[in-house]
Specification:
heterodimer; A: about 400 residues; alpha+beta; Trna Endonuclease, Chain: A, domain 1; five-stranded mixed β-sheet; about 15% strand; disordered N terminus; B: about 120 residues; 5 strands; globular
Chain lengths: ~400, ~120
Amino acid sequence: MSRHGRKGGGAKKGGNRRNENNITYACPLPILLEPTGYKSTKALLGLFGYSSNRIVHPHVEGIFDHASHSVWVKKSDQAMLLWKRGFFGKGNLSRSEPSWLNRQIHQREMQRKGGMTAEEITAKRRELRNQFKLDRARAIAQAAEEAEAAFAERGIIVTETSVVIPSGATWKPSSTPKDRAVEESSEPSLNVTEPIEAEPEEEEEEIKDVEHLQLTLQEAFFLIWTMDCLTVLDSLTNEPLSLQQIWNQFQNSHLPATTFDRTLLQASIPNRFDNPFLINYYVYHHYRSLGWVVKGGIKFCVDYLLYKRGPVFQHAEFAIVVCPVYEDPKDRDSSPFALQNVDPFTWSWLSTINRVNTQVLKTLILCYVTIPALERVQMPSLESPSCLTYYQVRDVIVRRFIPARMRD
Amino acid sequence: MENHVSFPALASLAKTYPQAASSLFATYNDLLYAQRWEDLTVIDLPERKRGALRGCRPNSKDTLFVLPCSMSETVSTSWLSNALKALDEPGGIYLAISTEDSSIVYYRISRGFAKPPL
């Protein structure tokens, strides 16, 4: 929800929303720093460069779902904690934070009061937009007809016509009976002082919350390893997994499975550097440690989006495409994983991605990750995250250059 | 996934096609709970080694077909035309691409050229 470009009456509302957001999303990471000790101790420690703050780690529980390569946080208060402090995860039935239950409850209330829910308001807006498009198409067809007729009669090409082609800014909807009916039905929701009729309420079932917060394996491992605030449970036994088990199983979940039951696969020892989990985790950790909020980028044809503070503040500035590069070409032939973007892009595909992102004002970054050769690096290093030191990353910004326009 | 309330409807197809289980689960839940589709049923599509979904949008009678797939798969035009042939749907189908962070994007796939309605 962007408030960019809204001036006048919207500015005050925008200011309040911004202040609310600054308070709600004040913590950039799940951990909190609690000051302890006396003022004098703090001052003394401060002289030597030590902080007397105590780090408070929240405890969040998640369940590892190997089929979907994700960790699910089911408790809503824990899910909101992870979202508010760093924008980790995404509600699986929502656009950002888990809001499905709230939307259902709100929808029920709105239906009872006869007002419009957010979805209905969106539907109305889409209907208006369709009407605008119809009007515009009709106007364009009429203008073309006139031009054809003028050419046929007088043999001249007419560039100006008498027909006005509506634009998005100037078009006004013509009021149809349907519109008026919808407007009337939405009035009760605006008129707050109108007393609600006391109708005998039916016994409504309580809505069961079927949503969870979904964390990618990269987000989950970041929270476990660097923040120490997530416990991952096995989905079948509900027992917490150790760090070693998590490290192994996160990698093994990417192995091709021939059966739904993955207990055998989960027990194997990881032995490949080109595991998608390792490559993606390296990129995720790289940008998170530089302070960016990293989210998925499927809506813009890319792998990741980088936000300066978070999705609620500003649109993402950068779009990342991960391009794995094999140090040893033989490793690629023996790979059980179908890694994407290993081959160089075709020019048409690169242009497509660049155009899509330029239109939404994002800068495209190609992130080349070098996968270490199996021959060079010993296998035991894969037993722990220390193998990540063998990877390298190079960022390349891609911008379309238009000589005529980019003189400055 | 197995403990989720919507899993029993998908259990047999999830076990038959384990690689496609997560995209089927994610798409089924999105259509059923978030998009509120009606008459949602699961179809077995052995030609594409996965399950597909059939249902109606809320307040509409047209039956639509949705084919789930995941971001890590490679989808070619022949893959899509096989799927279109198998589902035998003249109006086209929706391809639902699911990701690890639970985002789903839907693309409308038709046979041949299809001009936008407006």
